[in-house]
Amino acid sequence: MIRLERVSKRYPNGREALTNVSFFVDRGELLFITGRSGAGKSTLLKVIALLERPTRGTVTINGRNIGALSARHIPAFRRQLGMVFQDHKLLADRPVFDNVALPLVVAGTPFKDIDKRVRAALDQVGLLGKERMLPLELSVGEQQRVGIARAVVGKPPLIVADEPTGNLDPDLALEVMRLFRRFSEVGVTVLVATHDVHIVREFGSREIVLTSGELTGGSADPLPSLVASR
Fold it and tell me: Hey, which of 22, 42, 109, 170 has its CA 20 to 30 A from 214?
């Protein structure tokens, strides 16, 4: 589903956040992207989500070179993926329902469909019945689940999550990761950037390791004959 070929990203200040990164992600796979803070994990997810364009190399998703997309086609592309952040990025003055519904509203979805899909998404993350609560009335773990509901409400084939368990205690972190595994089991491709080695060991999914922007460990491709190139 996703293929990166010799992808590099250099920022205007001269810092190279990614250097010749190559790997493949299969459809429905749960993949961990690990490495220390500053290793390039967030930049890698931004490149895949087209929040940043690579300086060199090719990112292909579903057979399409996303680097060739024009600016006017980027919003439509982003509606095909869900993003989960460590700090939730919820609207504090809007209830849970409005936060989850936001991607559907932006996409122009009819209200009768929005109501049904928001409730279904909240049910998936165990928050049905809390639609009218404000984010600050929820626990940290519940806020993160609202962020996950918002990411999946549009039924995207791809979810990218940047340190989604960074602010959670170990039990809540496992709970959130079980949600991601459940999505992958029904065919959603899930990429999780994390520095939590305990989470990675607990779930046993494939892992790639970044060090100073370079792919230095893990299995870069589920096919043994293919090796990540530097």
Answer: 170
Task: Identify the band that residue 228 occupies on the pLDDT scale cut at 50, 70 and 90.
Answer: very low
Task: Report whether 151 contacts 80 (CB < 8 A).
Answer: no
| Helix/strand/coil (H/E/C) assignment for every residue in the chain | CEEEEEEEEECCCCCEEEEEEEEEECCCCEEEEECCCCCCHHHHHHHHCCCCCCCEEEEEECCEEHHHCCHHHHHHHHCCEEEEECCCCCCCCCCHHHHHHHHHHHCCCCHHHHHHHHHHHHHHCCCCCCCCCCHHHCCHHHHHHHHHHHHHCCCCCEEEEECCCCCCCHHHHHHHHHHHHHHHHCCCEEEEEECCHHHHHHHCCCEEEEECCEEEEECCCCCCCCCCCC
Q: Which residue has the tokens 């956040």?
A: 17
Smallest CA-to-CA distance from 85 within 40, 130, 32, 143 is with: 143
Residue type for position 94: R
